[in-house]
Amino acid sequence: MAAGEGTILVGRSTGPQPKPEVLTLRLANRHGLVAGATGTGKTVTLQVLAEGFSNAGVPVFAADIKGDLSGLAAAGEAKPPFVKRAEELGIAYEPDHFPTIFWDVFGAQGHPIRCTVTEMGPLLLARLLELNDIQEGVLNIAFRAADENQWPLIDLKDLRALLTFLSENAKELSGTYGNVSGASIGAIQRALLVLENQGADTFLGEPALDLKDFMRTDREGRGFVNILAADKLMQRPRLYASFLLWLLSELFEQLPEVGDLDKPKLVFFFDEAHLLFNDAPKALLDAVEQVVRLIRSKGVGVYFVTQNPLDVPETVLGQLGNRVQHALRAFTPRDQRAVRAAAETFRQNPGFDVGKAITELAVGEALVSFLEAKGTPSVVERALIAPPQGRVGPLTPSERAAILQQSPLRGKYDEAVDNESAYEMLAQRKHLDAAPAEAAGRSEGGLSGMLGSWLGGILGGGEAAAPKGKGRSRRPPPSLAEQVIGNAARSMARKVGTEVGDAILRNVLGGLTKR
């Protein structure tokens, strides 16, 4: 439902001089906020924005907390309230449906979304597992050891195998990496078991998500709306928050710099945004603030949807230039502070009291302020929100199943795969460690003796040894712990004299940067 070239019609102001209230696509990557109490119309506003972006050829990602957003995939109905609202806005109501791809971390209501343990990174994983500082330090040691020894951490069994290795070799490894506490390793293992019992282990694995699949358009050039089934996911708030933050971090790391475009490459909606920041450590808040501040140069717009503007830290709130504020209730002192804070963030309109208006807004009515041509916020206006063109309400299970059958991604992510990774590598190395030392090369002479001696020298970190006479003793192959310590030492040496592009790099939220 567009109001003109390069804009999305969001509503119409109700002041003395009514006018269309539009979001300018060129400025849509300057992020936004949709706030308001429960039942005031936030979800409908989110749907109107998603439909507008889709019509403009901009793909959208949104978490569907209650299942209502799935209705985007079906045409709306010309119900009297919608027809009346369209007439008030001076437009005709035109039901429509939108190209939709369904996703589900648990794989029940959409295509599974997976990432590897390495991509999740220690910072987000520590928060997901609710680890303390000491336990998080041990987890960082595990990731460091995996990095330096090129042991891919794909799923939980890989991480468990690595933690077991750290525990069995704690004494040898503590001198290189710092104290490796057995109690901390045990606590991490128990937290992993809880995560697995909750079914969250299905999220960690392969095939990992290809972000290009979020950025699709249909044959008519409309952007796909990627809807994450989040009703079950919301029962695990930390998993929900960690997943969305990982996704945002991946977008930030993988997408190239594009500057200011005529329209975003992708718009990302964070519903129930308060869950992202509850009990988050300062390091994580700083990382989120950095990503939000810089990701607009990648062509991504981020929109936070929450009940209370105070749910979003000020450093992040200051980055949100496009705002739709639905009604707030001022029953408690915190509610009253929220009303004042919301009112003060708008560019004031001398025609009405903004703070008073926030408490008087009807359902489907909001205060709106969008960025104008020069990037400055417009004067706040009281507006009626446009009616959605898609269905308001959830799809039936059979309707959802039919859309999944026709999905362009059908079959790509549905089956998990188990590639060789840290679990298999550590098991193989452990088996070799247990074999008799002389099994590395039974013959002292000939080609096999030369290769065995040379390989032993390389694995030991020293120079390749020349074949010795029969009366000389052979150095036994190094243990796995010795190899890890040797790899760590060589890695540190390489970093001293190597360019940054060749070093191990981690992104702002802790996952490995893809190069």
Automatic annotation (TrEMBL):
Residues 17-513 form the Helicase HerA-like C-terminal domain. InterPro entries: HerA_C (IPR033186), P-loop_NTPase (IPR027417), T4SS_component (IPR051162). Coiled coil: none annotated. This is Helicase HerA-like C-terminal domain-containing protein.
